[in-house]
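Build the 3D complex.
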Amino acid sequence: MIVRRARIAVLGLGLLLAGSSGRVAAFPVDGDQTALPSKTELNEDALDKPREVFRSEFAGGKSYLINLGNLAFSSPSILGEVARQAGVSCGTCHVNGAGNAKFFMPKMSTRPGNFDTTGPLFNPKANNFVLDPVRIPSLRGARYLAPYGVDGRMPSLRDFVHNVIVNEFAGPEPSPVILDAVVAYLQDIDFLPNQSLGRGGRLTGKISEAERRGEALFAKPFPHDPNMSCAGCHIPSGGFVDHQQHDVGSGGLFKTPTLRNADFNAPYFHDGRFDSYDQVVGHFDRAFDLGLSAQDRRDLVAYLTAVGDGTLPYEHDGAGASLKEIDDFASVLATAIPAGDKDVVALAVDTIGQELRELTERYPDRKNTSVSGGEVERSRARMALKEVVLTLRRIDMAVAEGRINDASADYKTYRYLMAAAVPALLASAEPWSLFNPAVHDQHYGALRQVMQSKHTSR
Amino acid sequence: MRAATAAPLDDAAERYRPYMIAGIGDALAGARALRERAAENDLAGAKKAWISARAGWERSEVFTAGFVPELDARIDAWPNAVSGFHAIEAKLFGAGRTDVESDAAALIEHLDSLHGKLRDMPLTPQGLLDGTVRLAYEVGESKADGGESRISGTSLDDMRNNVAGIDFAYRTIFADALKAADAGLADTVAGRIGQLKASVAAPDLPHVNIRTLRRASEELVVALQAASAKLGLPRPTLEAQSR
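Done.
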């Protein structure tokens, strides 16, 4: 409980800051010349990113296959042309394997946090001509959560991933190893730990009275059907799922979603129609005539909040976090270069190079009006990152031409640069970077203001 | 093969000067036309003049950041500059307003000041190679968010003019010397510039193949880095203030 209160306090502080400084949380894609609809919100500039926990990190480190899967998951190049042009990857919606509650795409979303997988934009052949978006789910604990899809139509995670790549996003047929890798990566993403959950999914430790009462209500048979209860489908001992589809009065049969880490998975229901647990509980109260009192509802919300918690759900997005991810991605080169695996090397160089180019833009150049000072530090950070991009490109060129020794030598240079020199240069430039909330807000605030002047003038 | 000596390159750099003067001259003429059109409340005419001025400027970016960094930062500042191209862009194309008198006056002053310096400004092959390399790298940046001139929707024009500037600088200053020193490498450079041209010849920004463009951009930079040694020049830098 201590952890949860701390989180709530942090969130509260965040809201206060947002109120006092006019925090601009995100900047949408805009302009008339973009592959995505104008006013698309990808939330890519968020300063806090979901924390990702891997099972294998507790078991000796991530395998080549898991790192390759993480790389492919973050690469637009495994998807179709529109996604590639827009720079959209699996990770755009599933940020660090979680969801993206602020994601919004006109024509494909009806509210932030949902997306029409059968919409017109990414694969016109898959367009069902109905705007029927589904909420973007978190993928934490995916290995426990079969079947897959909001309607649970696919028993196999591998088949589901294949369908997303080829049908929903019009990507080329993925190689078997890439499919295996993405599945291995997804199966490695764990739930965030929750100290309040004990054996069999029971609340444990210092539990409030409301949470205790909520736990009892959760297991209590429904008044008009004693065979049913909340816990009957959200089975506490089974990751709060039953692997079944149900009609809960929301317009069809949908699979039972997990409640683990669900505090961070809003919006709720298959289409993301509800923002809060209170709304969810209210729906069940009405749909199943549960006769809940106001106190009962509060108690259930308290219980859900306790179950849905997780340790340190977000982490500050700084250069360190970016470099750690890039380091994981780049580790595949240690295997792919000696093997002369052109496809994997090209995938890695394209994906990491793009990440590094985006990281470079976090250190504004001297033309940027939203930051002053630290010109030398920013310039050095930018230059170092560009050198790394070019080192990677040399690796790609060498492997493509069969010059494996040259590629290995450049990979050594890459490792050397990224071990100490680049992190140090980025750290020294950080105060004048977009990782500094003040600079971030000024930069994106200015951009948004300029774009808004355009929209209000029409 | 042998490394080329710098002296012929100094002469070659001089051949770039008229192009530089013409590019900034065009930008200045466009900015003056823009002020006139805006003063007559002719929004369409002012926009057209802005685009024309912008073309001259973007063709000149091979040298602006390296040789005149202060003016470059004033003329091309963003996102919420108080003067310069993007401040005017936001008013004309964003808000649909023509009250850009003071912004246009500042832009003209800066461009005029720059134009006046060009005839006597010392030009070094190294500085021009640095600028060519930096711009080649920059062209490969993703424009998925609409790019630098997203409000006017002219980011692709910027890219085309950048590539034209790169092409001209390379052909005028370095191509002959590199052919003499390493014909194969010269072919590689020319090939990559050709790929850049083909990429930005797309009908609009969403149809520019970003992956191909980026690859050509980076391979061009790698080739020019290799070329520097053949030309007897230090390795080009990737940031303007870093030499």
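Chain A has a mean pLDDT of 91.
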